[in-house]
Specification:
There is one protein chain. With about 260 residues, the chain is an alpha/beta fold. It has one domain (about 1-230). About 25% of the residues lie in helices and about 25% in strands. It is built from seven helices and 13 strands. A four-stranded parallel sheet has the order 2-1-3-4, covered by helices on one side. The protein has a three-stranded antiparallel sheet with strand order 7-8-9. A two-stranded antiparallel sheet has the order 5-10. The protein starts with a strand and ends in a 5-residue tail after the last helix.
Length: about 260
């Protein structure tokens, strides 16, 4: 199992990461790695804020060769704050190229508020803070069958219709008494959201499973930035021809 995630050096490992290590061999990969190693079976992608086309291309090729992807996307990652705790702007993440190819749209600018599953805090009811139970969690899927309580903070919604050959299974959903909201407003002015709330009369998928036959999101080949990176590598090699020649002289041929 492998995890592509952003983190700050010097911080202790996440509990989630430590628990994975109990049962799996876990490797950390750079979020914008241009290729996923062949020995990776499951790729865990956590809040890929600022991921490049090169990074998405690597994931695209990983999925096409049969790799399993577990992606956590967020329209407002409340824990992704700079030192000091002050967050001047919303921290969001998305996989725009991949999701578009799969027929799915993730709204990375709006969160979901669900008045039927709203959680209570010491400050009262907070829009965007959900306490979800059996009525919102699928019991027909192995992934969520044993989950009875789930708390989500300003989650995003998955919209759209899966592309041909792909099946969508909704694992967690809101009630129909839900609405898309501005996450910054929900954090700074919760009363404003509560007072102007107008239900969309539809259930929003919060967690989904996609399965089937996937097509590449890059039919024209690697994105330009990937090609540029390869060119830069060649330039670096060309800048040190003498070192290469010396290596060949010092290393005898095999056998």
């Amino acid at each position: 199992m492998s995890a592509m995630m952003q983190g700050q050096q010097g911080q202790p490992p996440w509990v989630f990461y430590s628990e994975l290590q109990r049962d799996y061999t876990v490797k950390l990969l750079d979020m914008n790695a241009t290729a996923i190693p062949d020995d990776v079976n499951v790729l865990v992608l956590i809040h890929p804020r600022g991921i490049t086309s090169a990074g998405e291309y690597a994931i695209d090729q990983f999925v096409l060769r049969g790799g399993k992807l577990l992606a956590f996307l967020d329209p407002c990652a409340v824990l992704d704050a700079p030192p000091g705790g002050f967050m001047p702007q919303v921290s969001s993440s998305n996989l725009p190229a991949l999701l578009k190819a799969w027929g799915i749209d993730f709204n990375s600018t709006e969160a979901v508020a669900d008045m039927d599953n709203i959680a209570r805090t010491s400050h009262g009811r907070m829009p965007g803070l959900m306490s979800l139970s059996d009525n919102a969690i699928s019991k027909d899927d192995l992934v969520t069958a044993d989950v009875s309580d789930l708390v989500m903070v300003l989650p995003g919604a998955f919209l759209g219709t899966p592309a041909a050959g792909i099946k969508e299974t909704v694992l967690v959903r809101t009630s129909k008494n839900s609405q898309l909201i501005n996450p910054m407003t929900a954090e700074m002015s919760p009363d404003e959201v509560m007072n102007s709330f107008t239900p969309a009369n539809k259930e929003f998928p919060l967690a989904i499973r996609l399965s089937g036959k996937f097509k590449t999101a890059f039919p024209d080949g690697p994105p330009k930035e990937s090609a540029d990176q390869k060119d830069d590598s060649k330039k670096d090699d060309a800048a040190q021809p003498d070192a290469k020649k010396d290596d060949k002289k010092e290393t005898p041929p095999p056998g």
